[in-house]
Amino acid sequence: MAIRNLWTKEELILAFNLYLKIPFGKMHSTNKDIIHLANLIGRTSNSVAIRLVNFASVDPALQARGIKGMDGGKKIVQPIWDEFFKNQEELLFLSEKILAERENSTIENKYQELLFDLKDFKGETKIRAVKTRVNQSVFRQMVLANYTTKCAITGIDIPELLLASHIMPWSKNEEHRLNPENGICLSALYDKAFDKGIIGINQNYEVILSSTLKQKKNTEFFQTHFAPIENQKISEPKKYLPRKEFLEYHLDTIFLK
Questions:
Q1: C-alpha dist (Å) from residue 74 to 68, 71, 80, 89
Q2: What is the pTM of this model?
Q3: Which terminus in the chain has less CB density within 10 A, N or C?
Q4: Which of 105, 121, 137 is the last residue of a domain?
């Protein structure tokens, strides 16, 4: 009888890392990112694609939207999913560390553009700073992938102009810092406007304008950049809709009524 080549926990963590970074519709064996991971862990791209769809089967956000995934490997992936949502910051960073090692690199080398100014940091201070920046970078990858690298308001698809906007600010809620339901892909202008409460998004996923902003309704910039988006629905993401309780928090505590 053939010996089953069981997935290790490390391989499952790497698959989960990739699951968070690519849209559900691109979880197929010809995806270059899936092929890359398959080569790193010595498996076929088809087996990696199946494992990603297994993760979709335990993803509550997808289940709520009627997307079931493939539940044949549900028992295998469920522990990884549960571990992530109990301690997102630790597992996400661990997954990036494992990925860098599999690529014969290190976190410091892989993210050197983000970490270059931390060279004089020492001990726990450096570890915390590195972890925070790496996790923020992965959060950006997750959010941009969720919106197919397009601003949810304008459709701008130039990555250099896009930001992963937190609905509940990073500093205000540790539990949901890395939750993709807490992120929206916005271009720089609307990211800043959302962050400062100048615009908001209501429970119907429509853009609303603050009274402070509406005082500028006779200006050219208002007519150009804000009047056209009032009551406009944001683009529907591929996996994770903004969680309504997060939008409500933003409207209650940040939005300028």
A1: 11, 5, 10, 23
A2: 0.91
A3: N
A4: 105
